[in-house]
Amino acid sequence: MKYKHFLQADSECSCEQPSSLSAFTSRRAPHHLTMTPAINLSTGGAPEKSCIVNDQMGPFTVLYILIFIISLPGNLVSVWAFIHSPRAKKSASIYLINLLVADLLLLLALPFKIMKDLGVAPWNLMVFHCQASAVTIYISLYASIAFLAFIITDRYLQECHTVRSLRLQEVGFARLLSLVVWLLLLLIMVPNMALPIKQVKEQTYLSCSSLKKDISLHWHALTVFLCTALFLNASAATLISSTLAVKKLLRSRSDPKLWASARKVAASVAAVALAYVFSFVPYHVVRTPYTLAQTKVITDCETKKRLFLGKESTLLLSVLHLCFDPLIFFYLNAPFRHTIRKLFPCLGNHAISNAKEEAAEEMMQPATSAQQEAAC
Questions:
Q1: Model confidence over 283-297: pLDDT tens digits?
Q2: Which of 112, 116, 150, 229 lies in disulfide reach of 95, CB 3.0 to 4.6 Å?
Q3: What is the pLDDT of residues 14-48, one digit of tens each?
Q4: In the chain, how many domains are there?
Q5: How far apart are CA 289 and CA 185, in angstroms?
Q6: CB atoms < 10 A from the CB of 205, how many?
């Protein structure tokens, strides 16, 4: 009787247990989902905790808001100045205008990132950011890289008085090259907007990569590879052109009439090159390993968190160029500068004299046919 009673008690107890492992996990799974499922089962059947990497965005969001507030007036004034300036007659002006367009795209997309990172965006807006505005940020980023490289290269070509350099400085060629850059970036980036996404439940800490299907993750990795190649080529052109331009300009020290103007131009070239390095090099040091974490090649949670924080920190530096670009427009484009001085007459009190300014601009002009015999 005792043995029979024991079997009956054991049978009643077993009936209360979940009928399967899936029932066990479903009954204990939290209702709130994070960027990955709250409980994953490893091959051994043990539960694995989720890995949340984007739950410390507060400081970044504050800095993004400051960048947006500081850069918005400068870029709006830049738009007004370019509209009221004479029509562009130099290739450098074409590249500067395209750089401004890239900045405006970034300014349009930045509020969506800020709202998502603050956690105040509704779910549909968070998904929209992942599909559209985040991609727009990267289109703007790489357009800025390309056009800054063109600006610095153009500065060197203006000191290189050859027939080939003159052709490369034609306004028509600059417009064609700018169009090619935009079309290339759209060809690479737009599929990230168009490829289908997963249907996931609403969650507080949404990671954009968690929305991507396998084909989207593969295209994302290819996009990073192609954009990194673009960055490396642009960086090589920037480094070589800025070094040669500064070296050539510094040779004018023997001529007192040209030295003041040459020093000003050399300083502007060096400043643009330094801004390029400061804004974009740190980000690309982190970008590749972070992509490995996104595509699940790197799976360690602590490593993922460090890479995410590194990516966000360096992306912040890249976005910071929004504050510097209006200064580049002012110092590298004479019509823009004259228009700004009409709008703000007080700037003329601290500016160089008109004679020195005209001399500096003369140095920036493409070579005449009489100068084409000089070789770089």
A1: 999 888 888 877 777
A2: 150
A3: 444 444 334 433 443 443 333 333 333 333 333 34
A4: 2
A5: 22
A6: 17
Radius of gyration of the chain (CA): 28
Nearest to 290 by CA among 309, 275, 271, 265: 309
Tokens 């009787």 map to which residue? 1
- pTM for this predicted structure: 0.77
Burial degree of 318 (CB within 10 A; 0-12, 13-18, 19+): buried
> 47 and 132: one domain?
no
Structure tokens at 302: 């602590």
Q: Is 323 left (phi over 0), alpha (psi -120 to 50) or beta?
A: alpha
Spatial separation of the C-alpha atoms in residues 284 and 310, rounded to whole Å: 11
Amino acid at 329: F
Six-digit token string for 207? 């990671």
Residue 341: partners with Cβ closer than 8 Å, 6 or more residues away: 347, 348, 351
The CA distance from 3 to 9, in Å, is: 10
Q: Are residues 33 and 182 in the same domain?
A: no
Owner of token pair 């850069």: 71
**Does residue 372 lie within any of the structural domains?**
no
